[in-house]
Amino acid sequence: MGLVLPLAAICTSYIGITLSEVDNIKEFLRINKLYAWDLTVAPPLLIYFAGLKSFVNGLWLAGTFSGVVYAGILPTMISLKAKKKYDSFHLHFPHSMAYLSGLVFLVVFIYSLASLV
């Protein structure tokens, strides 16, 4: 019983995340629902079949990529786009710092990819 409850929690979380990701991809990319399912299900399967079968390694991979993308690359891109589009956008640091920040996170992302091999 002690193992069934955590397994049920993980399964229901996975189902909910998968369904929301399918909807997000379908809406964002404006593609067919079948293609959205493929884009949602294929990457985890590819990672599994590539030999990354350890749960800890899976957590490391997810944490590294999501941290790099969501904490480094996306804020940099959003800041640069907002500065270009809106004159009233006030964020007091030069463009070079934004590019440097994005470059650092991009290097970390490439290093993470290279460390998988």
Secondary-structure blueprint:
Elements: H1 4-29, H2 33-49, H3 55-85, H4 95-116
Explain how this protein is built.
By secondary structure, the protein is mainly α. It is 82% helix and 0% strand. The chain contains 4 helices and no strands. Helix 3 runs antiparallel to helix 4. The protein starts with a helix and ends with a helix.
Summarize this, please?
With 117 residues, the protein is mainly α.
Task: Please write the string of helix (H) and strand (E) elements.
Answer: HHHH
Work out the strand percent: under 5%
- Describe the global form: extended
For the sheet with most strands, the description reads: none
Report the mean per-residue pLDDT as an integer. 80
Give the radius of gyration.
18 Å
Query: How many beta strands in the DSSP annotation?
Result: 0
Number of helices: 4
End-to-end distance: 39 Å
Proportion in helices: over 70%
SSE class? mainly alpha
Low-pLDDT residue spans? none
